[in-house]
Design goal:
two-stranded antiparallel ribbon; 15 helices; single chain; about 375 residues; mainly alpha; ABC transporter involved in vitamin B12 uptake, BtuC; globular; about 70% helix
Length: about 375
Amino acid sequence: MRKERPSGWKPGRRKAVLATLILAPLAAVSLVAACLFGALPLSASTAVRVLASGLGLFTDATTTLGAPIDPALLTVVLSMRFGRTLLAFLVGAALSVSGVVFQGILRNPLADPFTLGVSSGAAFGASLAIALGLGGVTLVPGFPSLGGIPFFALCGAFGALLAVIALGRMGGRLRRDTLILAGIVVASFLSALISLVKALNEESVAGIVFWIMGGFQGRGLADLSLFAPYFLVGLTVVIAFSRDLDLLLLGETQAGQLGMNAGRSRMFLLFGASAMTGAAVAVCGVIGFLGLAAPHLVRMYQGAEHRPLLLNAALLGGVLLIWSDVLARTILPGGAELPVGVVTALLGGPFFCLLLRRKAGYGL
């Protein structure tokens, strides 16, 4: 008799493993390679040597690796470039994982953190903190993650989510179509509030505009302490309920018949994704299209099983944002930088149009 193939060797699972085996080394290489680019040119060997020394991989860099390392190089490569690159990777991973969650909950591959107004809420919170002069203020001494901007951004993200849930609840249940409509309304209202804040406080306009456009200029290892706590909490919640995303694709009635509390799982997933989105906006501003593109590209290749989808979307989103940031800081002459949000929008716009054509059944 013909033996059945184990479920772990399904075609989708094999593709997911292959994607991980490609994306994980690519992410590791990208974290190092991105440190080569900037106003101060560096060779690959110099960057690797400085990173190895700065990260403590060699106890005596002078004797083990040859020539002494200039302390200025340690600052440039480790504190500035590597810190910025690592932050870009984690932010890209956070936005991509959030995109997977929103797409799974709404059962819509065109959904992303903007769909429910979460990004707009975080941007409004950060804008309000900047306008009030709380950008450099730590609300609780000794806890940099409770600084003015990250705290207000997170409150804005959760406030937007609560407003969307309140507006989207029909007959005691959350409906996908009303959630999307509520998200559009809330996002539009918050955008108007951001414009009002800029109009009432002209001194803060430059800082708010920079935040809205998104960028990693001046960001580094220190900003990881602002981002990491919220990212880790949100990621932990999403991973804990990741299997429920597969059941939600069947519909709420079918998921309930399988013993899942769909409303409870949906709420935890929404709050986990919102925590990551709020943290991302808090440290680098609004970066669009990444939460849409990375999950969809991975899903097209390996299928919609959510645990491997979350992993590979995070890896791809991190890699895409690393190289978008490299492009943003090298495309202009004289050391000038583009906001990375502009780069992702320019690259993501055509992708979104192609995705719409495919969704409408016109090819691709």
